[in-house]
Amino acid sequence: MSLWEYANPRRFMAVTDRWMPWVFGAAAFCLCTGLVWGFFFTPADFRQGESVKIIYLHVPAAMMAINAWAMMLVASLIWLIRRHHVSALAAKAAAPVGVTMTLIALATGAIWGQPIWGTWWVWDPRLTSFLILFLFYLGYIALWAAIEDPDTAADLTSVLCLVGSVFAILSRYAALFWNQGLHQGASLSMDAEENVSDVFYFPLLMSIAGFVLLFVALVLMRTRTEIRARRLYALSLRERMS
Amino acid sequence: MPELGKYAIEVTSAYAVSILLLVGLVVLSLRRGRSVARALKNAEERHKNG
Amino acid sequence: MSLTVTDLSCARGGVPVLEGVSFTLEPGQALELRGPNGSGKTTLLRTLAGLQSALDGGIEAPDGAIAYAGHADGLKATLSVAENLRFWAAIYGGGAIDAALAAFDLRGLEERPAGNLSAGQKRRLGLARLLVTGRAIWMLDEPVVSLDTASVALFAAALKTHLAGGGSAVIATHVDLDIGAGTLDVSAFRAAPAQGGAFDEAFL
Amino acid sequence: MSLTVTDLSCARGGVPVLEGVSFTLEPGQALELRGPNGSGKTTLLRTLAGLQSALDGGIEAPDGAIAYAGHADGLKATLSVAENLRFWAAIYGGGAIDAALAAFDLRGLEERPAGNLSAGQKRRLGLARLLVTGRAIWMLDEPVVSLDTASVALFAAALKTHLAGGGSAVIATHVDLDIGAGTLDVSAFRAAPAQGGAFDEAFL
Amino acid sequence: MIALLLRDIRLAVRAGGGFGLALAFFLIVTTLVPFGVGPQNATLALIAPGILWLGALLACLLSLDRIFATDFEDGSLDLLATAPIPLEGVVAIKALAHWLTTGLPLTLVAPFLGVLLNLPGPGYYWITLTLAFGTPALSMIGAFGAALTVGLKRGGLLMSILVLPLYVPTLIFGAETVRRGTEGLATGTPLALLGGITLGAVALLPFAAAAALRVNLR
Amino acid sequence: MIALLLRDIRLAVRAGGGFGLALAFFLIVTTLVPFGVGPQNATLALIAPGILWLGALLACLLSLDRIFATDFEDGSLDLLATAPIPLEGVVAIKALAHWLTTGLPLTLVAPFLGVLLNLPGPGYYWITLTLAFGTPALSMIGAFGAALTVGLKRGGLLMSILVLPLYVPTLIFGAETVRRGTEGLATGTPLALLGGITLGAVALLPFAAAAALRVNLR
Ligand code: HEM
Ligand SMILES: Nc1ncnc2c1ncn2[C@@H]1O[C@H](COP(=O)(O)OP(=O)(O)OP(=O)(O)O)[C@@H](O)[C@H]1O
Ligand SMILES: Nc1ncnc2c1ncn2[C@@H]1O[C@H](COP(=O)(O)OP(=O)(O)OP(=O)(O)O)[C@@H](O)[C@H]1O
Ligand SMILES: [Mg+2]
Ligand SMILES: [Mg+2]
Prior knowledge:
The complex is a heterohexamer, with 1 copy of chain A, 1 copy of chain B, 2 copies of chain C and 2 copies of chain E.
Chain A: H1 9-41, H2 55-82, H3 85-117, H4 125-146, H5 150-178, H6 198-241
Helix pairs in contact in A: 1-6, 2-3, 2-5, 2-6, 3-4, 3-5, 3-6, 4-5
Chain B: H1 8-49
Chain E: H1 2-14, H2 19-37, H3 41-64, H4 69-73, H5 76-81, H6 87-116, H7 123-148, H8 155-183, H9 188-217
The structure holds protoporphyrin IX containing FE, adenosine-5'-triphosphate (2 copies) and magnesium ion (2 copies).
Protoporphyrin IX containing FE (HEM) binds at residues 55, 58-59, 62-63, 105-106, 109-110, 112-113, 116-117, 126-127, 130, 183-184, 186-188 of chain A.
């Protein structure tokens, strides 16, 4: 069976109906384990003290914030090329999840910044790019909300998502060019030397898995809602026309 | 509670804010999902009957 | 320069409005679209003019033969009558606007800003635009709205000249134009609710 | 509730358009304003409705008796049909909108955003607004534009009920309404170019 | 009157033009400032009160743009002018609706944006207070400008130009109060003047705006 | 195409929406800044390049607002879409007309406004140069935003929100070049990047904008 079959709304609804409890269960399990482990059972870092515990929220949220946008980009492309409604609706469903993730990353980062850098906010390129990403999410959501006809909205937001992605990447380089920052470099590289030590590493991985699963679960659930809402819109239109 | 040292406020508030946001998102998603599902059910019935 | 429509379906706001529309329009013919309010005349005309894509079916017309005139006249309030008309003439690569001005009795109003015209004068200017496009197939959406009897006669005369010159026209209207055109009642083609389980059908 | 107009002159954009218009409209009467495009029907109606002041002459009408409906319908595209109507009902201190919806066959469209209506449906909604104003003297500027025959009949019926209930109406129109109304050809009152030397005259 | 207020608020919220958009504009303008002037915290702290006030002012102005224009274009204004409520009331109510959907949310969100610009401690209190005092004047003055330009096709920019000079006193007293407050100086006088401007604007401008509207409808 | 360009320029000049208004807005915003941030010359000199760029950007944005909306509302856009010129060309021409009536005058007038903000000496040269390089991108990006929101009644503010984040790279490179130039540092890289963004925008965005317009006409 081709993968595209899942783009049939009926099929999608039927299949995800079976998956939902499992995905939610796995997400809850991983998230709770990761966060509880991180919060209660990890030692303090020798430099950052107990504040390092924020990492179990901050890093996964930051990762998902970016990944959510990437997913929206792919879904938008699929809609533009193959015009599968499920794909457009999945992009719509992912945006609020992505925005929440961005907000969590920003909030935890700001809270973390207060003890470590002595300020809530600096115009570091990484932080700046995140703020810009937040703005892109806002624009995307606002455009969806402003247009009443769902197919028109799907087309326009998809175009916006494409163009926006290009400009988001440009902004990232612009911000790097503009100000070299204070923020941490990558610490999860494959190179064992650079890695944070295992005590922090495993709960972090667990928590990342939890965020990924939670993202998947929420997007699936919201996509189901959007499909229903789309169907509802079509029905009510037809009702009014006859 | 684990020993959080001088960062107690920061760490707990970070967890509180994040969990609040996540729970908020989940609750909103669930609520909207329910209401849309209910509305759709009504509409489908009306559609079939009339 | 004939227009052939076969089994056309079109939608408005994502909902199918008409289906199975077929007709052929030969040079020199005009077709009146009739149907009560909300039956889909505007939708059909916009589809034929290429402003929206058809759900299904085919529209065969020579390239660049269709001129569209909708509910709105596309006038710029701050430009004068002549400037408005000259602009459209330039866009369609045409030249003189005198004939068009004369045909719709707009002589004497040339220098008036279009925003200062009365409702019927605006409409006449909008119709005069058709003459400068030099296109063969006109798609007109309620062309005689707001026109007085004399102006309706002007319009009918212009239309007859157009048809006599090998042009054709599709006209959505609620009033009789007495130009001996065929009529097509679009309410006969109202789309039936979709049935069965095709892909994505649930949303149409 | 009678409207008396004596020797009225009115201007549009600073240019006198009509002069010496006089008529009386008793309860139960309707008056059709006729005249070619640009003859000043809209100008006259706006003057009567108090939207612009008269150059000269008098308009006698009871306070708060006039309801005006112009070329534009005053609809908010994002509000639903019912919300639009309910708003105007509230502004005029009235209450129920059901009768108005029924009179113009808008039942079933209540929840539709006004922006999604077809041209004729919008117009019907604009006319329905008149019923919720509860006012006695209607000033209507081309009310039946875009309406199909059935809707024109609805309008005529609503108008007759209004007249039978002691209301009256002044209607600018290019099409015959068959309501047995008197007609007034405004082209008879076209303002003559100003002569002589009154103060400020040079500018009129 | 209440129907009109409710309708305007509903329209603002429906069109997405209400709470959300003005706020987002405010957020974006504040974010753009550091890109322009550079990321140094000291500089930013110095200009933060002024920038916040300017941002709020622009957000207010832009959302005012079509406060009467949409009603004019679709004919509602003709109908409102012939309706049994005074045009002065219509103006005042529309300005109030605008303030509720724009000025008020801007005031509430300003302290959070202060974080981005590194606003010094007491600034948070003062920025909220002065915006609360000043934004009603912004809405009312803007409504007057909108009334003047309602008949023009591209009135938005012209309106900005008419209105911005009128905003000067409000801006000066508002930003000055915040600056003094942040430095611990006396703020009584500028605050009183700010309040005075607001009261005066709300009391008198509806009449001027209604007169302008009548002329434009003619 | 040339007819369209001439028409757009003529409309801009007629409605008073062209040269004059955007410039006046620019002027007023730049003069409001000292009222907001205080009159100290040192502070002003520090933030001058950024403020000039921001002012130009906002002036550009506001005048873009209704670049397609007026044509959409009066039906011209329907007619242009069925006319024998490609919609991509229409978009590009309209953006060009906008640049000629807004971006170009803004560029020419920016040095004079620099005086008001106490811009340091070499800054005059750099601000003109970067604006000349950057404003075409502003017009084109803005036209894209306008095309997205053309069908919406109160699209202006929404458009600002969609467009302002897209302006970020242009703003950063533009203001950064001026800052570096003023301090005598190397400006090659940011200037090249600024030019690159402009070229890319002009080459690609007409297609995106035309696609958006087609969707909106549907
Ligand atoms: C508002 C402020 C902040 C924002 C928006 C922010 C944003 C980000 C982002 C986008 C990442 C990248 C995640 C990834 O590469 O997948 C990240 C990672 C990280 N952040 Fe922050 N951050 C902020 C403040 C802080 C602070 C104050 C600290 C602590 C000193 C911090 C420590 C880290 C660490 C350790 C990582 C992991 C790096 C990695 O593994 O790649 N962040 N943050
Ligand atoms: N944006 C929209 N979304 C959903 N439905 C719409 C939209 N616009 C119009 N409709 C509906 O589509 C149908 C067809 O409308 P259309 O404008 O084609 O009718 P029409 O025959 O031109 O009517 P009229 O004679 O009143 O102009 C109508 O029932 C109308 O209510
Ligand atoms: N703003 C204006 N400035 C100058 N003249 C104007 C203005 N608006 C309209 N006119 C002119 O005033 C005259 C009267 O216009 P009016 O709109 O009253 O005509 P009308 O009888 O309603 O015509 P129609 O049947 O076409 O609607 C017309 O000749 C018109 O060209
Ligand atoms: Mg129609
Ligand atoms: Mg008229």
